[in-house]
Design a protein that fits this description.
The complex is a heterodimer of chains A (597) and B (574).
Chain A lengths: L5 E6 L2 H5 L2 H14 L6 E6 L11 E4 L3 E3 L4 H14 L8 E2 L6 E2 L6 H4 L17 H6 L4 H9 L2 H11 L11 H10 L5 E7 L8 H8 L1 H15 L1 E9 L3 H16 L15 E7 L8 H8 L23 E5 H13 L1 H5 L9 E8 L5 E6 L4 H8 L9 E6 L5 E4 L9 H6 L8 E6 L4 H15 L5 H18 L7 H15 L3 H5 L2 H19 L14 E3 L9 H5 L5 E2 L7 E2 L9 H5 L5 E3 L1
Parallel strand pairs in A: 1-2, 7-8, 7-10, 8-9, 11-15
Antiparallel strand pairs in A: 1-3, 3-4, 5-6, 11-12, 13-14, 13-15, 16-19, 17-18
Chain B lengths: L3 E5 L2 E5 L5 H7 L23 E4 L6 E2 L10 E3 L3 H16 L15 H9 L22 E3 L9 H9 L6 E3 L6 E3 L16 H5 L5 E3 L3 H9 L4 E6 L20 H11 L3 E4 H22 L5 E2 L4 H10 L13 H17 L6 E7 L3 H6 L14 E4 H10 L21 H4 L6 H15 L17 E8 L2 E9 L1 H12 L7 E5 L17 H17 L9 H11 L5 H7 L10
Parallel strand pairs in B: 1-5, 10-11, 10-13, 12-17, 13-14, 16-17
Antiparallel strand pairs in B: 1-2, 3-4, 3-5, 6-9, 7-8, 15-16
Helix pairs in contact in B: 2-3, 8-10, 8-14
Pfam family, one (chain B): NADH-G_4Fe-4S_3
Keywords (chain B): 2Fe-2S, 4Fe-4S, Iron, Iron-sulfur, Metal-binding, Oxidoreductase, Repeat
Protein name (chain B): NAD(P)-dependent iron-only hydrogenase catalytic subunit
Amino acid sequence: MELYRAHVLVCAGAGCISSGCQAVKSALVESIDRLGLQREIKVVETGCMGPCDLGPVIVVYPEGVFYRQLKPADAVEIAEEHLLKGRVVERLLYKAPEDGKTAVTSDQIDFFKKQTRIALRNTGIINPESVEEYIARDGYRALGKVLTSMTPEEVIECIKKSGLRGRGGAGFPTGLKWEFSAKAPGKPKYVVCNADEGDPGAFMDRSILEGDPHSVLEAMAICGYAIGANQGYVYVRAEYPLAVQRLSLAIEKAREYGLLGESIFGTGFSFDVEIRVGAGAFVCGEETALLASIEGRRGEPRPRPPFPAQEGLWGKPTVINNVETWANIPPIILNGPEWFASIGTEKSKGTKVFALAGKVNNTGLVEVPMGTTLREIIFDIGGGIQGGKQFKAAQIGGPSGGCIPARYLDVPVDYESLTRLGAIMGSGGLIIMDEDTCMVDLARFFLEFVQDESCGKCSPCRIGTKRMLEIVERITRGEGREGDIELLEELGQSIKSSALCGLGQTAPNPVLSTIRHFRDEYEAHIYHKKCPAGVCRALMVYAIDEEKCNGCGRCALVCPAGAVYGEKKKPHRIDLEKCLRCGTCMEKCKFGAIYTI
Amino acid sequence: MSLVTLTIDGQQVQVPPGTTILAAARQAGIRIPTLCYLEELNVIGACRLCLVQVEGARALVAACVTRAAEGMVVHTSTPAVRHARRLNLELIMSNHPRECLTCLRNTSCELQQLAAELGVGEIRFQGEVSPYEVDDSSPAIIRDPRKCVLCRRCVAVCEKVQGVSAIAVQERGFDTVVAPAFLAPLGEVNCVNCGQCSLVCPTAAIHERDETEKVWAALADPQMHVVVQTAPAVRVSIGEMFGLEPGSIVTGKLVAALRRLGFDKVFDTDFTADLTIMEEGSELIHRLQNGGRLPLITSCSPGWIKFIEHFYPSLLPNLSTCKSPQQMFGALAKTYYAQKEGIDPARIFVVSIMPCTAKKYEAGRPEMNSSGYRDVDVVLTTRELGRMLKQAGIDFDSLPEEDYDAPLGISTGAGVIFGATGGVMEAALRTAYELVTGATLVSLDFEEVRGLEGVKEASVNLAGTELKVAVAHGLGNARKVLDAVVNREREYHFIEIMCCPGGCIGGGGQPLPVDNEIRARRIAAIYQADRQMPLRKSHENPAVQALYREFLGEPLGRRSHELLHTHYTPRERF
């Protein structure tokens, strides 16, 4: 093995790829070659490091210097200054948005400092295409331990004792699920990884598959041993080509090293994994729909029970867990269930990865202990709200979740607390909204999503969410009627209690929770025909400030409806009967004379 | 096996393990409304009208898919249950055209009945409705997705009973629709026109093509000589449309009713059923004696014919070349009958009353014009005839019993049993036995080929040779037999296949509803009608004998080949 004096980790998560990390890496490698440093310095592509808004990012080890928002020219400078001469390039370091303080290494940055990384332990640190690097970080040791020194029952007991709950949304105890499958009659049994991540803005699972694919494979093999299964499937959406590619490579490498396949470690236990690529239907994240899709049928949920643990893939006992759940398994085996159970709250153990998005300063992937407050996530890790605006609410749990308003910022984030507030943990989508967000419009957005993604099987979801969407749409258009809020509540409650699957049963949540916490906004739309956040176009009233208007006529020229009138050089006016509320006049006015009421 | 005890609405109910709440409630006399549920075939919990409350459950559960558990406490009529059921029905109705008064299924629509039963007072949602248009591309079956409630019963029948899967669920969300793959028109896909979908549709989203107006027009045309033939199965089912018990034999009233409608002659397809036996029986004997392609497979059922053309084209040489009795009738009506009566065949208008939607397709096949004209002009299903009789104000039950006209109305019991699964086989055996052995059959009843068992096998000693036969009804069962033949797992000499479960009495054009009990009662009536006939063997039919004497010559003769035999067309699987 060759030794290097320094390693440069280049984040090659999908976010950094989009912001141009490949060009940065090429510039870096070229410069290193040009400077003759290729035997001293190794450049490594890693999975997602987390702070996506700072990308492309690189970290230079052994010091751990963190550079952000790089361009190819910056990479040349880093090579010449830092790598050749040992001088840190000050201007490319991270500066905290609150106080402008410079951080040299990533552990000086709040975004990283406050995180506890278990599921993401290797993501952003190792080269995901190298099984050796995974092994160097204790990879496949847990599988070795399980196969050589534990009985299947002990493995299940260990997972049960850890308190690990499913990270895909519902939070079912993982060990219990394994036990049900182990005890269920029927052979063969199957292990399935649900990588059909579909919540808007969520990319935890993608990042783990892209950044640490072996952790999932190792965990699936452990489960296979525990329940008596020899075949696993990873169901991953086609929209994640990089994840599919890295996972395929990982499977190939693992087979090559005898970590998958016949008689692993010579123990006689065989386990293999295949990939099934989904076509991107959101509902295929629902486990029974996912299994139907693997079987080659239309991806639609079926009634439960029977649960997959008893009757899953091809009617056989099947454990299905999501990517993040799997990624937690090897450390639990290695460090023991007590260690895992010591993190988190009484009923929610361990950590949770969130995809932090929206109007927060630091967006990206964060992993925090269960029970961390929303305030810590948004203000300490997330660096607060962009532009110094007011925090209004957080949408947690994606389209199945709900919103949490500012007054609950100090509630610990765990399964039970979120459910009490009308939201759910969900898979980890966390969208932060500021004062400019209209909650009715937000509900409309998510409703539109679930309506579009409804499989169409059961009537309450297929038609009910459509009718809810139509009502919310008319409210945002200013055509809301008295009784609409109550009708939405009636429909929402009924759909929750009568839809066939989890998608349908949670589809009304965004509406119900925004009504619960922001009823006044709905009332403003319906009774006063006003959108307090100024988002719903149809409810905006445009006016011209006569003081500022000099009668240039530009607004009248661009108005598609001919709603602006007035004499040249004199203040203009807007005919509200004709106005389409398109906002073009306001955009084009050079004098800031047009405003909305 | 120990029973499971649960409590439903305060009543203790004991059921075998695995029983659903719905079945347990029915056992206790408690009615739970259902829409998508179809026993054993479509148990998917989709419509959410059978919701009940189970103590301890997070949400309401669908009674049709939830199994009873020991100690379970179920409430079927709480305010929450009634509200959810009614709201779900209101939602379904908000996407359903309110055209009840002009709808084909007015008063026989399950949605309509549920609306009345659950008391949906108003529909509070006026929004978008299903974006799909009526598909009338098929000569037999009309799809009206606007009226579809997406219960998927049709999909289940097409896939699980018939093994065809011509229709399936397409698209998703509010745009979900039951249609052929890629939303292709039904008339251009592998649909076999069996109409089993139309039997299970709770609304008018899938129904037979109504052609009654063409018949009214012909009857009103003084230039036309309008003759009608009635299939065997119609006489044991049409009474159901007028409130009679399933299995009522109403042959004489049916004849009378058709005369009242104004048909010039009322004939019987049983006549050409007897003729089919003469031709097909001779074909069987010919193939047996000359090393012809075996097994010989019957060809009376047009849904079956289209099925084999799509799915087993390699077996087409095994099919009997005989046309179906309907088409033999049409060909003879415009030749033999026309000559005999001195009527210009151009003026003869042949109407069939069939239990079958596929017959509409069959009559329109380009090769079905050997008389020089389209052999059968219009095919009406039993349901369409029922509607005509109602429109004409005919009080069916009080009609006198009348006889069919000669000569094409003269038949034997062997022709009648064509209406039930196994009937063609039995009729053929009666004749073949006597023709081959020269002996008289002691017992005419071949019990092994009767009944609702999906695949029936029998072996008959024909003058020293064991004749191995099989009978299948429902195309899913047909697949089993054909696969066994293709894979050489079974050897048969003669196979009867009927497209629809139960045979023609369970045809896609029959009165609604249909279930196995109703099928069994109609079958019982068929065999009763057979027993009541003075003649029960096709070769003893005097009119058939006269036909050969006067016109055809002999079975499989030149004229028979021209008029009574046909050929088939291999088709794509999709």
